[in-house]
């Protein structure tokens, strides 16, 4: 049944792409229809919100106005669909009920199940690394959780942005994360440089001063995933794992996504998506996954 259902969704999306192409007067080329819906809950204030968005080729096409229980479209090509869908009162009420009640209930349940993981924090280990005295100084930060971390450089107590290269944050094999920031200067021995690391797990920032006794070089370095010059050395996550993560993220952006977002602090928005208006589409685009 699940396989048949997914095949049905595939046919709906195929039909929707065709209709959208007609709306935009397109006859050929590769095009993408996207759907994303979900809910938000602030467990401190109790405020909830929800979204159901549809897009075409990465641009907004249809947006569900939860407050007024109606569909709106920033694109003239979507007005036909909004008029049709807004006449289906039963479907409008169903979507509102799902986003404001059922989705929130599932969200709270999943937060309860995963609270120990969602709220755990692991402090980072910070090392200053250098291949040789004339090489860039690398501030390597590893073993931290959650993912968010801020790594900055200071010169004489002031923020320093010149000659700085920040690497991406990547996963370690144990579920923690690592990142590096590289400073390329020749005067590190005569000027007062420091690497400053901020993370949720820390009561105070970690500050590493760039001085000889703090720097580790070559065989003295035991670290996960990076060589003294900041390049992967094969002991950390493999390139295949990293590429797989990137490709996975790209594939998710092209799929029907049921997104459930738990936010400690409300703020960031969400990506947009799109759709068309056949009868089969109108039914299939209802949330099919309950959280």
Describe the main β-sheet briefly.
Answer: 6 strands, mixed
Radius of gyration: 25 Å
For this structure, what is the CATH class of the largest domain?
Alpha Beta
Instruction: Write down the CATH topology of the largest domain.
Output: Murine Class I Major Histocompatibility Complex, H2-DB, Chain A, domain 1
Helical content, roughly?
A: 25-40%
**Overall geometry:** elongated
Task: Report the uncertain regions.
Answer: 222-226, 232-291
Mean pLDDT: 78
For this structure, what is the CATH homologous superfamily of the largest domain? Answer: MHC class I-like antigen recognition-like
> Can you count the beta strands?
15
Domain tally: 2
Order of helices and strands: HEEEEHHHEEEEEEEEEEHEH
Which CATH architecture of the largest domain?
2-Layer Sandwich
The first-to-last residue Cα distance is 19 Å
**Proportion of residues in extended strands:** 25-35%
Helical region count? 6
Helix/strand-derived class? alpha+beta
Task: Give an overview of the whole structure.
This protein is α+β, with helices and mostly antiparallel strands and 291 residues long. The chain folds into two domains: 2-116 and 258-284, MHC class I-like antigen recognition-like (Murine Class I Major Histocompatibility Complex, H2-DB, Chain A, domain 1, 2-Layer Sandwich), CATH 3.30.500.10; 125-244, Immunoglobulin-like (Sandwich). It has helices at residues 2-23, 79-86, 89-113, 115-118, 239-253, 279-284; strands at residues 33-41, 48-56, 59-65, 70-72, 125-130, 137-144, 149-155, 158-160, 164-166, 170-171, 177-183, 193-199, 206-209, 215-217, 256-262. Strands 5, 6, 9, 10, 11 and 14 form a six-stranded mixed beta sheet that branches. The protein has a five-stranded mixed beta sheet with strand order 4-3-2-1-15. A four-stranded antiparallel beta sheet has the order 8-7-12-13, with no helix packed on it. A hairpin with a 5-residue loop joins strand 10 and strand 11 (177-183). It is elongated and about 70 Å long. It starts with a helix and ends in a 7-residue tail after the last helix. It holds the Pfam family C1-set. It comes from Aldrovandia affinis. Keywords: Glycoprotein, Immunoglobulin domain, Membrane, Transmembrane, Transmembrane helix. InterPro entries: Ig-like_dom, Ig-like_dom_sf, Ig-like_fold, Ig/MHC_CS, Ig_C1-set, MHC_class-I_related, MHC_I-like_Ag-recog, MHC_I-like_Ag-recog_sf. Residues 269-291 are annotated as: Disordered.
